[in-house]
Amino acid sequence: MSDGRPVLIYDSGIGGLSVLREIRLLLPYEPILYLADDAAFPLGAWEEEPLTQRLLELFSRLLDTHRPKATVIACNTAFTLAGDALRQAHPGHDFVGTVPAIKPAAERTASGLVSVLATPGTVRRAYTRKLIESFASRCHVRLVGSDMLAEHAERELRNEPVSDAALMTEIKACFLDQGGRRTDIVVLACTHYPFLANRFRRIAPWPVDWLDPAGAIARQLVRVLGDRADGSPAIRRDLALLTSGRREPGMERLLAGFGLELGSSSQCFDNQSRL
Ligand code: DGL
């Protein structure tokens, strides 16, 4: 039964929209609150300690103010760092996380060569190493950290085209050709990257499977919500909030395309203070 409370979707910017579009397919009537923590973008460049503190503080205030029925952390960089700490801090709340799709990649690869394309933060995480040890010990997993791709995706989605050469610089290390075997799967381990996947396909030196976990995240949310999912249509636009408080027409247009209306930063938290 619906109680009108939204599902909160969090990312540092537009990346979580790649998860939102899958959620909309499975849960079309679900009220959504989209939170882009763009004041902290790019999260991939943060040191672990201050980022954990920021996320803990941010979510205490968000959950207090908006009382979401569940939260999707649509960000590998944030969830691989602070997912456990957030669950501990809010034991009664459902967090659906995003982690590099290393397990499905290991199950699917034919060549045994898998690359994980992610932010520098996600590449450094103990969580990511553990996923490789637990699920992909029989594969050769190459971790490729990119400083620029999340930024490139932000620009591309706002109609500021990024050159093939700039994209190639970031992805070329994913392609390994050794002993007659080639990389056949690249895990898109940052939610910004699916928006560039068609560009990647065009410039890749050979075809690979670009693995996007968004559908699996949406299916997990369906399981977590169970009969709390909203089942009836409502005429409304869902709200998007930006922690920076910035308002750009390009951003508003983009959000509108995902059925989101940009609210004012004063709607972020009850006490109106900024992070
Ligand atoms: N979209 C985020 C992720 O999935 C990262 C972007 C950033 O560096 O802020 O990792």
Oligomer: single chain
User: Helix and strand string, N-terminal first?
Assistant: EHEHEHEHEHHEHHEEEHEHEHE
State the separation between the terminal residues, measured CA to CA: 34 Å
Mean pLDDT, as a whole number?
A: 95
Describe, in plain words, how this protein is organized in 3D:
This protein is of the alpha/beta class and 275 residues long. Helices cover 40% and strands 17% of the residues. It has eleven helices and twelve strands. It has helices spanning 17-26, 48-66, 76-89, 102-108, 120-124, 126-135, 149-157, 164-171, 197-203, 214-225, 249-257; strands at 7-11, 32-36, 70-73, 95-96, 113-118, 140-145, 177-178, 181-182, 185-188, 209-211, 238-242, 260-262. The strands form three sheets. The protein has a six-stranded parallel sheet with strand order 4-3-1-2-11-12. A four-stranded parallel sheet has the order 6-5-9-10. Helix 1 packs across helix 10 (214-225) and helix 2 (48-66) packs across helix 3 (76-89). The two termini are 34 Å apart. The model has no long low-confidence stretch (mean pLDDT 95). Bound molecules: D-glutamic acid. D-glutamic acid binds next to helix 3.
